[in-house]
């Protein structure tokens, strides 16, 4: 178990290094001098030269990369050009908000997605099945920014039930969480359905029926645990899509999270801030994959014993 | 076959149909047989002949609503199965009639401990508590000869060998002391040595517990070794039924004769001649030939065989064969029925 | 002691002789949603090509005295903050969405197929390097990766192609690789190998044609994704720039006036929704018809 976790962590290290390299190269080979871009026309050549030296922009790319990497490993992601503050502290201040939003959205997506998927599978090809699957396709096909606007228009502007935007309490998270959660609820519902249908074809389901279990017992006792194993792994992929979606939801609902930081960084052409926030999000996704793999192994006894826990 | 009061199971005119987009397919037709108390009755035939479907029909496990099961009589020790509701059938399953499946590898749930699965019928049908179930499963494990049974209780299926899993499946089948156990090719997936052990175990359990067994197999060797009565199935029908001695001494249906002839005998010199086999293959049930279903492959086919499906001819002593060779067919001039 | 193996043949289904294409078309035609989607896509393509002819107004003409007009017989969906016809701008937006749906999907398909076949067939170090690269691309949150590309290269339509192709190829490569691995074991590949066919011949003459049905499905399903990504990027201001009429951009501009004229923001969103739905239906239909094993 522990061995598996360690091996899994070791495998993700080269991926991480590769990602930082790709990201660094992409952001640091910009045509046009970032400092000049920042200073615009009111900076004298001397000032530009001083700032360039300060940021070590004259060093070769790989030296700068290793400086960045060693800094990142110590939790130093550089300084925001625009805000002149440590990128790490800016992200750490914003992250709890993103986490809060993403967690609420995840809960929304599970509460809608898993029961909808189970019902659709159990009542396969019925009206309920078609309804939920149509609904989930609608969720997947709807741009987040648009459903967010629609909700704002209906629930904030017209009905005045909820605040339009801002981030001052629970009522401010309701709309963003539903918008964000709904888009992944569709994915979860479809996966739950297909996974449950697949499991229901197995021989051991017939065995359970042959024992005289009620259909409810067959599903809850024998099918569900197996069916939800892949659903757990989708939660890792969900972290990536929630983070992508959070960029949009945070922008629309005015939530001061990591997504908003990256949008602001792009608008202000604040390279260190953008670099830091994207790297942070990517590390989160990799961590999510890691956790999902380990969770998977805990849930499935077949894999668990392969990892050397031994026979009982 | 004469009616005996000592039958655990009595089936008459069982018919199972599947309704699909392209019309009905009758997968079982005219199935009638009895299972005597404490007897082992074999169902033998090629794959696709309807053996397993017979078992699922008896268990009430034919998938609804596409599958429809009807019978003039299906009597399990005084309970009329044809009159039971879905839930009534469910309550019998695992308690009065249980089943051991072919694939011990896949018939157990991989994510639940073996003892929970083996003991589950007790929880369902007798409302027993976990501790009592565990104790009972331990007893069953000992009875079916699982070595070191205490340690195996908490094992997961993948941690047991195929033979041990099949023993666990048998323990599961017998845990509520059912009146009838259906074993569907219980040894096919096992290696030869384990096969013999499992068969010996089943014979031994029959003698000790007195459970009647329906043995489904394609292996005539197992039939000869285990069964009291035999039903040979072909294309959804029983083509010959007899006690095991009569069947091997006087096989009366050309199909049965073909099956027996294709068994290699240990006394014969190997490779001295090509092993005889029945030409052709099992017909598609959706496109059955008219008349006798075996006719296209039969060496003894007569004109009448093409026109009319033969009934079961009574050859005495409970021996029957669905063949015009044993039926007076001069009374049916050609062309009488389409 | 068992019955002779000759007997153990399962019931044989009748094998129908029919071409793959005809079978596919027949299966596709049976799927009503897929047909509906196809009709919608055809209509959209028509509107996009003939936009200057079919659209009722000039998409760029500004008339400040005609701001936020409600829907009427002249302006079916009303006008925006510059007095431009909303419907016309949506029709012109279809041009961008279709191009953005198709071009980057094609690029990532070509790159992904090449990488996937190479990775699956050559194996070893090549496989390792390509797959780790794919792992990395997949680990990036797609929208953020696309945003970084747009930041570096600048916000315009061509760079959206680059960004989306960069995001998309890895998924294609993974699927193609696993198919190639399966095909490699098939007898006809071994036969080709035994006949002295070169690696390149085997990859392009024998493996590639067998991956084509999967590629068609992948392509059709990546179009709606690309449309969605483009509209999101444009919404966030790092995609297509004004005064072009990208649907995402239209929603983004319209959101400022949500209370005054909700149609300006809502209508382009409906266009995105319907288009994405239609392509999804077509893609699902193609998948069910061509490659049922890919289902879910």
Q: What this model shows, in words?
A:
Chain A is mostly helical and 312 residues long. Chain A folds into two domains: 2-73, no CATH class; 91-308, MetI-like fold (Orthogonal Bundle). Chain A contains 13 helices and no strands. Mean pLDDT of chain A is 82; it is low at 307-312. Chain B is an alpha/beta fold and 338 residues long. Chain B has an eight-stranded mixed beta sheet with strand order 7-8-9-3-10-11-13-12, sandwiched between helices. By secondary structure, chain C is mainly alpha-helical. Chain C has one domain (43-50, 88-294): Orthogonal Bundle (MetI-like fold), CATH 1.10.3720. Chain C is 70% helix and 0% strand. Chain C contains eleven helices and no strands. In chain C, helix 2 (32-49) packs across helix 4 (86-122). Chain C is elongated and about 75 Å long. Classes of the chains: A mainly alpha (312), B alpha/beta (338), C mainly alpha (296).
Fraction in helix of chain A: over 70%
Q: What structural category characterises the helix and strand content of chain A?
A: mainly alpha
Distance between the termini of chain B: 29 Å
Distance between the termini of chain A: 15 Å
Q: Quick one: CATH superfamily of the largest domain in chain B?
A: P-loop containing nucleotide triphosphate hydrolases
Residue windows where pLDDT falls under 50 for at least 5 positions of chain A? 307-312
3D shape of chain A: flat
| Number of strand segments of chain B | 13
**Assembly annotation:** heterotrimer
Task: Tally the structural domains of chain B.
Answer: 2
Biggest β-sheet description of chain A: none
Can you lay out the helices and strands and say which pair or pack?
The complex is a heterotrimer of chains A (312), B (338) and C (296).
Chain A: H1 2-28, H2 34-39, H3 45-54, H4 61-73, H5 87-122, H6 127-141, H7 144-158, H8 170-200, H9 203-210, H10 215-253, H11 258-267, H12 271-299, H13 301-309
Chain B: E1 7-20, E2 23-36, E3 40-44, H1 51-59, E4 67-70, E5 73-76, E6 79-80, H2 86-92, E7 97-100, H3 114-126, H4 130-143, H5 149-152, H6 162-174, E8 180-184, H7 192-209, E9 212-217, H8 220-226, E10 229-234, E11 237-243, H9 244-249, H10 254-261, H11 303-307, E12 313-314, E13 320-321
Chain C: H1 20-30, H2 32-49, H3 51-54, H4 86-122, H5 124-139, H6 142-153, H7 157-184, H8 187-194, H9 199-235, H10 247-254, H11 262-290
Helix pairs in contact in C: 1-11, 2-4, 2-11, 4-5, 4-7, 4-9, 4-11, 5-7, 6-7, 7-9, 8-9, 9-10, 9-11, 10-11
